[in-house]
């Protein structure tokens, strides 16, 4: 089930909603159906063979945030 970000045109709240099938999104603050879907920033981790992998294949770069980097740096 996709998680979408919306901005309500009535109350200006920014919200995240799980939308199932043909379900129409509704603002949980004011119950309006006048919502604008926002573009979301997609986050991901790209693996490479450049020697950035530590034990168990976790990344050893502090900026990646994959958890295997904790305590390094």
Strand and helix layout:
Elements: E1 3-8, E2 14-18, E3 35-37
Antiparallel strand pairs: 1-2, 1-3
How would you sum up this structure, described in words?
This protein has 73 residues and is an all-beta fold. It has a domain at 1-39. The chain has no helices and three strands. The chain has strands spanning 3-8, 14-18, 35-37. A three-stranded antiparallel β-sheet has the order 2-1-3, with no helix packed on it. Strand 1 and strand 2 form a beta hairpin. The mean pLDDT is 76.
Strand-pairing-aware structural class: mainly beta
* Strand line-up in the sheet with most strands: 2-1-3
**SSE ordering:** EEE
Strand count, sense and barrel status of the largest sheet are: 3 strands, antiparallel
Cα-atom Rg, whole angstroms?
Answer: 19 Å
Helix count from the secondary structure assignment: 0
Average pLDDT, rounded to a whole number, is 76
Task: Estimate the strand proportion.
Answer: 15-25%
Gross morphology: elongated
Features:
single chain; 73 residues; mainly beta; 3-stranded antiparallel beta sheet; 3 strands; elongated
Quick summary of this structure?
By secondary structure, this protein is an all-beta fold.
